[in-house]
């Protein structure tokens, strides 16, 4: 049995007290321990932002990349060694502004890995700028008269891109978040978890309090069927995306089909002289 | 009889002139001739005039001479557009369906290429006819072509072979009323050699270097690398992926390499610009990274199908901050192969980005090559460990600056890497003493390369003048020097970064004049060398930036003004 603390490297996070990101870090550590993922097989990949610091607090392999590019790095790792459990994470700016196209393409590829969006609807690290997920009217340093452009709807966008797993969590609902992350890691294919993770310093609108009032918990609805894509779309529209739980999972997802069973990094790589000559003869 | 010949074939793009030219080169390579081909592209995808100029010789060549012996035209544009490239006593051959060429000063004759093709079964074969006519003029036995036709169409319907053989027969029996005996090639050495382009050699080198992952975004003139590896890698358990952009490509390759698979991406200038941040990340996380940059005309989209060597500044100074990286500059197709293997080893050994710097000419010009040697023992994975240790320090300070590396999955090696400045454990650190030590560590790694011998020299021991170049220019400079009676010494730099400083210093002390020849506006290599070593008064440069490679005579002309 591994314990939650086994996945912590005891470095004190630089996050502001009360930041929603603490809970995501902990949920990930609890999920890893419940799944008993060997530390050496877990790779945490993160982007740049307050959120991006997460990989630096995990006792596992960790790759803190560049802004918006956690997904390409994470996919490269998984394609290189499919025996690893790869969890990417990053802010809403990371995944839906600068890295948006990687998000959509990662969804298309359906590589067996998990992506946790630490969504606070603001840029925390740059000290309070608008995000493409900020609500209209949201006042920040870069939108002093209020944000004008309508926000991206992560759920609708994810599902319409063909996602095979989409769930939402809330930093204040730790146990639900742990369960969701466990399901996401167990899912065969690309799983995206959008976590409402309040920024207590730069987002005074979408606060813990606010979310508690707004969020609908799908698990409490007995009739909710997470395998029904149409139903998932309807729910996202009806709740304006403000719901938590497993929103959609395609049951028959197998993940991207790989060409062989051995991880690339462990293949027998020798090419014989005979084989080499055959390759050369094609040029004669 | 001649021991070398240059032929320019032109026609409408998409109608097979170029592939006919390449087939001819393959046939000549099989007979033991060395060939070198150069293509021109129409800016249209299909249609428009395109040409292939091929040079065949009994000796190794790496360029196209200034003038051709024969022009063979399948369309009306080929002759007027290329007449200035024909020797005074050159021969014009044109399809008999074209209007009379009107170039009365030249020996010229129509050939019934379309007509014969039609008689034999289909006008598609007109290029085959052209190839056969040239073969006949060069004195190549018909049987040789028969064999290659049978081989080429082995998998096609019998009727195709029969038709092609029929066309061949008609070509060889057609009477030509023009004196051409002087164009017969002296015999080749009978040693069959492969014909390759630089991009294929790079891809093959990657495969042999045990690279099993490639992510890339298509771009001229680098796409052949992803195309060839896309075909090869799955056969050996590997993966080639066309991804959403070059940013994804470079980061995916970094991820794959971090997790232990040798990985590559290939691009040209525009893609390189997008990769810069990723290159910095690889250097900061000390992750091995191999990138091919096949240069074309920039900035921006520039002239996408034309040749230039103008990414040196970008590779030297383009990324933000300061970091070590290695740039290898192959000068021939053989170099492309060996340098690619070396690039993977250097990346693993020094744990930093390695760029294979090609250019359009080198990447795309087909060349007859000397056999590539197979070697069992070519892999060096540097300080890669298969065991971890408590508090593993992936960035430990060591004598040579290089730390031990473990791959994810290794028990006890768990550690963090980051693009932030970090301590020896790989955790973010703001400490200024640590910062200085980490910078010193990263740069110390590649210092030993500065004292290697990386300038390949040919000495003629006559004048105290050294012509120095890199990439595909080398073959042209070599030809120019030979044309000028082997008066000058010449060579090419194989490693552009870090510069082989010790050797260069020696050379700059030895020669009265060092002339650096390159395809860009500023004389980038010359400026970089002066910047690092001085010798401003000894170094002069010849540069060309109109989108086409030098010709040997252009170099001689420019030299005239400098010497
Ligand atoms: C290419 C690039 N542009 C800009 C930045 C500056 N930057 C760092 S984090 C960030 C956005 C952070 O917001 P988010 O991703 O939502 O994460 P959070 O800090 O809110 O957790 C920006 C713009 C950067 N690091 N790199
Ligand atoms: S600024 Fe916001 S997102 Fe960043 S650590 Fe503080 S509370 Fe968290």
Describe the structure.
Chain A: Keywords: Iron, Iron-sulfur, Magnesium, Metal-binding, Oxidoreductase, Thiamine pyrophosphate. Chain A: Pfam families: PFO_beta_C, TPP_enzyme_C. Chain A: GO terms for molecular function: iron-sulfur cluster binding; metal ion binding; oxidoreductase activity, acting on the aldehyde or oxo group of donors, iron-sulfur protein as acceptor; thiamine pyrophosphate binding. Chain A: Residues 199-252 form the Pyruvate ferredoxin oxidoreductase beta subunit C-terminal domain. The complex is a heterodimer of chains A (284) and B (563). Chain A contains 9 helices and 10 strands. Chain A has helices at 21-35, 70-80, 92-98, 100-109, 154-160, 174-186, 208-214, 229-238, 273-281; strands spanning 42-46, 61-64, 85-91, 113-119, 122-123, 129-130, 165-170, 190-196, 216-217, 243-249. Chain A has an 8-stranded mixed sheet with strand order 2-1-3-4-8-7-10-9, sandwiched between helices. In chain A, strands 5-6 form a two-stranded antiparallel ribbon. In chain B, strands 9-8-10-11-13-12-19 form a 7-stranded mixed sheet, with helices on both faces. In chain B, strands 2-3-1-4-5-6 form a 6-stranded mixed sheet. Chain B has a 5-stranded mixed sheet with strand order 16-18-17-20-21, with helices on both faces. Chain B is globular and about 85 Å long. Chain B starts with a strand and ends with a helix. Chain B has 18 helices and 21 strands. Helix content of chain B is 36%, strand content 20%. Chain B has 4 domains: 4-193, Pyruvate-ferredoxin Oxidoreductase, domain 3 (3-Layer(aba) Sandwich); 197-368, Rossmann fold; 383-445, no CATH class; 452-562, Rossmann fold. Classes of the chains: A alpha/beta (284), B alpha/beta (563). The interface between A and B is large, with 55 and 68 residues. Residues 48-51, 67, 90-94, 118, 120, 122-126, 131 of chain A line the site of thiamine diphosphate.
């Amino acid at each position: 049995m591994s314990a939650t603390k086994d996945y912590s490297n005891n470095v004190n996070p630089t996050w502001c007290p009360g930041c929603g990101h603490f809970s995501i870090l902990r949920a990930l550590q609890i999920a890893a321990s419940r799944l008993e993922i060997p530390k050496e097989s877990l790779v945490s990949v993160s982007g740049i932002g307050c959120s991006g610091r997460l990989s630096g607090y995990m006792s596992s392999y960790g790759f803190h990349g560049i802004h918006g590019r956690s997904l390409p790095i994470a996919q490269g790792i998984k394609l290189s060694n499919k025996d690893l459990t790869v969890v990417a994470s990053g802010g809403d700016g990371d995944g839906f502004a600068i890295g948006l196209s990687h998000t959509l393409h990662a969804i298309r590829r359906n590589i067996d890995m998990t992506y946790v969006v630490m969504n606070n609807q603001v840029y925390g690290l740059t000290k309070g700028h608008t995000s493409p997920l900020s609500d209209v009217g949201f006042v920040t340093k870069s939108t002093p008269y209020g944000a004008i452009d309508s926000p991206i709807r992560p759920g609708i966008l994810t599902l319409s891109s063909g996602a095979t797993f989409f769930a939402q969590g809330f930093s204040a609902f730790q146990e639900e978040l742990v369960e969701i992350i466990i399901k996401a890691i167990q899912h065969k294919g690309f799983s995206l978890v959008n976590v409402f993770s309040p920024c207590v310093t730069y987002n005074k609108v979408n606060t813990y309090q606010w979310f508690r009032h707004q969020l609908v918990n799908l698990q409490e609805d007995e009739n909710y069927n997470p395998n029904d894509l149409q139903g998932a779309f309807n729910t996202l529209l009806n709740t304006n995306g403000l719901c938590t739980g497993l929103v959609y999972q395609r049951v028959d997802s197998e993940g991207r089909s790989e060409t062989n069973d051995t991880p690339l990094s462990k293949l027998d790589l020798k090419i014989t002289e005979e084989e080499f000559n055959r390759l050369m003869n094609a040029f004669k | 009889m001649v021991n070398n010949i240059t032929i320019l074939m032109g026609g409408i793009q998409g109608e097979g002139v170029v592939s006919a030219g390449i087939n001819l080169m393959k046939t000549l390579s099989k007979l033991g001739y060395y060939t070198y081909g150069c293509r021109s592209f129409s800016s249209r995808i299909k249609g428009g005039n395109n040409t292939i100029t091929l040079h065949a010789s009994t000796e190794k060549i790496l360029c196209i001479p200034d003038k051709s012996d024969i022009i063979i035209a399948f369309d009306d544009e080929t002759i007027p557009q290329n007449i200035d490239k024909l020797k005074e006593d050159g021969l014009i051959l044109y399809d008999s369906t074209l209007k009379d060429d009107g170039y009365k000063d030249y020996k010229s004759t129509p050939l019934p290429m379309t007509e014969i093709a039609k008689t034999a079964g289909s006008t598609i074969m007109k290029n085959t006819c052209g190839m056969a006519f040239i073969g006949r003029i060069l004195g190549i036995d018909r049987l040789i072509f028969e064999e290659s036709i049978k081989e080429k169409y082995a998998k096609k319907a019998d009727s195709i072979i029969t038709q092609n053989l029929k066309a061949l027969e008609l070509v060889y029996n057609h009477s030509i009323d023009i004196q051409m005996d002087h164009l017969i090639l002296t015999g080749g050495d009978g040693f069959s050699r492969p014909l390759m382009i630089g991009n294929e050699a790079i891809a093959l080198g990657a495969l042999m270097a045990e690279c099993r992952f490639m992510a890339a975004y298509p771009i001229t003139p680098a796409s052949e690398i992803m195309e060839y590896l896309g075909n090869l890698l799955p056969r050996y358990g590997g993966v080639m992926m066309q991804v959403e952009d070059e940013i994804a490509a470079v980061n995916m390759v970094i991820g794959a390499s971090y997790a232990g698979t040798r990985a590559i991406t290939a691009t040209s200038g525009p893609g390189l610009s997008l990769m810069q941040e990723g290159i910095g990340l690889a250097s900061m996380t000390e992750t091995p990274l191999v990138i091919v940059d096949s240069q074309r005309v920039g900035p921006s989209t520039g002239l996408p199908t034309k040749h230039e060597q103008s990414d040196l500044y970008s590779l030297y100074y383009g990324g933000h901050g300061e970091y070590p990286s290695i740039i290898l500059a192959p000068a021939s197709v053989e170099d492309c192969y060996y340098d690619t293997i070396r690039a993977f080893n250097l990346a693993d050994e020094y744990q930093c980005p390695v760029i294979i710097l090609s250019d359009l000419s080198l990447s795309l010009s087909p060349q007859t090559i000397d056999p590539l040697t197979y070697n069992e023992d070519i892999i060096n994975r540097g300080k890669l460990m298969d065991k971890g240790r408590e508090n593993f320090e992936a960035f430990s300070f060591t004598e040579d600056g290089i730390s031990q590396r473990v791959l994810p999955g290794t028990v006890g090696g768990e550690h963090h890497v980051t693009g932030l400045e970090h301590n020896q454990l790989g955790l973010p650190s703001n400490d200024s003493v640590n910062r200085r030590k980490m910078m010193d560590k990263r740069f110390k790694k590649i210092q030993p390369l500065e004292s290697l011998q990386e300038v390949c020299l040919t000495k003629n021991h006559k004048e105290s003048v050294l012509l120095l170049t890199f990439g595909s220019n080398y073959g042209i400079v070599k030809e120019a020097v030979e044309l000028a009676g082997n008066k000058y010494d010449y060579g090419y730099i194989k490693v552009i970064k870090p510069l082989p400083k010790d050797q260069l210093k020696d050379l700059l002390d030895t020669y009265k004049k060092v002339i650096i020849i390159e395809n860009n506006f500023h004389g980038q290599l010359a400026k970089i060398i002066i910047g690092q070593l001085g010798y401003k008064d000894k170094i002069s440069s010849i540069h060309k930036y109109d989108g086409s490679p030098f010709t040997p005579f252009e170099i001689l002309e420019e030299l005239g003004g400098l010497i």
